[in-house]
Write a structure and sequence with these properties.
about 375 residues, three-stranded antiparallel β-sheet, alpha/beta, disordered C terminus, 12 helices, 13 strands
Length: about 375
């Protein structure tokens, strides 16, 4: 039946919970799951636990730190992008600095890309500091690519651009961001144009409502296999809400704001972790670009690298060769997600049923 195969990263989450006393017992006990944090100074222990918490190789570029805002630029012509790189006009500073940097230096490592993005942003008067978060410790001098190096040739991409047309806080550049990023991903990175989904509030594409965004997560991950290359780009408003379950060290949840956020609410980082990150299987690579405010830890991943001047200098010199363990990553969140999904899995639920349940839970937030 539907429940014959554990979805996405379930196997790792089961093992994670099993090491904390047995997921099946916890799932039936009604007790609050808890486990000791791995030691950030013990790389092997932390890496082993991180691989259980997030099965896939996940990388996220965010435009700024959690406490920062990300700029929507009225006219991006000053960025100097090539004429064939996208529609022009308005756009997000993160997307434009990233695409421009990749056009200027197509063969670059992760440190060089972040350094170039910082340079572009600073030159244009933006103070935001890009972040690189990941599920594995990354070699910062390895070549940038969104294609899985152990890939099977299959690729799939989800693009979300929200201008909030006619609403308070309307943006101008998010549709252009999506068109520019999609063009780069397909033409320069080799993603399959026929295996893409676009959500934009432009009257022609599917509307980026809360329900459609969560269904987009499901579409992106539902048939994912080891070797796949997945990509998601979001350009729109990001928010910060008071944490509702005690899993954030700063007391706040970072959020995506769907076009119908005033009615349906915002999509918390907990839901993004549950419905996107935890659904990707081992051996799959997911790359995410979040061009929104308060996005530094919106995917809640075990490793991070902040592109500050000192960190970039350390990475370039070789004194910081890898991204560092994120001491704020909440392994209990992974355990709770594992329990929730496992209870459904035990009952024979497949991905569609699990996704529908998460959407119901989201509506109740």
């Amino acid at each position: 039946g539907q429940g014959s195969k554990a979805p996405g990263g379930m196997a790792g989450l089961m093992a994670l919970a099993g090491g904390a006393g047995g997921l099946a017992a916890l799932a039936g006990s009604g007790g609050k799951p808890s486990m000791p944090k791995p030691d950030v100074n013990n790389p092997e222990e932390f890496a082993s636990r991180a691989a259980q918490a997030v099965a896939a190789d996940v990388r996220m570029f965010s435009g700024c730190k959690d406490e920062q805002t990300s700029a929507d630029v009225y006219d991006v012509s000053s960025f100097g992008l090539p004429a064939d790189s996208g529609p022009g006009g308005a756009g997000g500073a993160c997307t434009n600095s990233m695409v421009l940097s990749l056009h200027k230096q197509p063969e670059c490592n992760w440190t060089q890309l972040l350094q170039n993005m910082r340079g572009v942003l600073s030159e244009k008067g933006f103070s935001q500091i890009p972040q690189l978060s990941s599920s594995r410790s990354m070699a910062l001098n390895s070549q940038f690519s969104v294609m899985n190096p152990s890939g099977n040739g299959r690729s799939k991409a989800l693009y979300i651009g929200i201008n909030y047309v006619g609403q308070q806080g309307e943006l101008r550049g998010c549709h252009n961001d999506v068109e520019m990023m999609r063009q780069y991903i397909e033409e320069k990175q080799g993603f399959d144009p026929s295996n893409a989904k676009v959500l934009m509030d432009n009257g022609s594409d599917e509307e980026p409502t809360a329900a459609n965004i969560l269904q987009g997560f499901q579409w992106l991950t539902e048939d994912a296999e080891s070797g796949d290359s997945l990509f998601m780009h979001y350009s729109g408003h990001g928010g910060s809400m008071r944490d509702d379950n005690g899993d954030e060290s700063d007391g706040m949840d970072e959020t995506m704001c769907p076009v119908d956020y005033a009615r349906a609410g915002q999509i918390r980082d907990d839901i993004i972790y549950e419905q996107l990150v935890s659904m990707c299987p081992e051996g799959c690579q997911l790359t995410v670009v979040m061009d929104c405010c308060h996005s530094g830890s919106i995917l809640d991943l075990p490793y991070n690298f902040e592109a500050s001047d000192s960190n970039l200098a350390a990475a370039a010199s070789g004194s910081m060769p890898q991204s560092l363990p994120n001491g704020s990553f909440d392994f209990n969140k992974a355990l709770k997600v594992g329990m929730k999904l496992f209870k459904m899995y035990q009952g024979g639920a497949g991905l569609q049923t699990i996704g529908a349940a998460a959407m119901q839970g989201f509506r109740e937030v």
